Request: fold
Amino acid sequence: MVAAGAAEAAPRLNPSPSPHRRRASSALSPAKSNSNANTGAGDARPKPKAKWRCVNAQADAALAAQKLTAEKYLSDAWITTLGMRKSVALKRFQLQLYRNNWKLMTVLKGQMGYLEEWSSLERDYVDSLSGTVEALTASILCLPVTDGAKADIQDVKNAVGSAVDIMQTIGSSICSLLAKLAGTSILVSDLSKVATQERTLMEQSRELLSTLATVHMTSDYHGNAI
Reply:
């Protein structure tokens, strides 16, 4: 019975593996581990690529946004600078216009005395001329030359000479005033030409400012759209 019990208990024992089996199992285990490692690496390879693609896309998007922002800032700065330049040019034109107006007023103010003098001289010359005509009429045309009456030739000569002297004085004064007025008219003509040129420049400046406003509105619209 002891032998039978030993025979029944023998199959339940778990004998230790032989050295040959240990070597085979140890030889097979690296292959299994390598296959498992390759499988894990194959599963992990696509993940870093996708991650880097996402990072690159985000970086490109950020750079594009920064580029658009920088371009908008540069465009706004350029428009602002252009507006300031146009404003400075307009101020210069206005200053030049004021200077020319001041010159015109100065010239006219200097000539106002001559114009006032001309009005007073004109009255004096008219009075002198009318008196001369009356004197000549009384001395020559109204003389009683009939019925043997005689006229004093020397008196008539003196009267005519005095009238001629007065006429020459009047003529020289008129020529002097006409020369002064001619110079004044030339200055006024030149100033009118300058004023016309300035008016043309002001129109051009107004057109440039309207164009600048249109460009600025277009830039703001594009900036808001972006």
Notes: The CA atoms of residues 135 and 159 lie 8 Å apart. The longest helix spans residues 46-141. The helical segments are 2-9, 19-44, 46-141, 153-225.
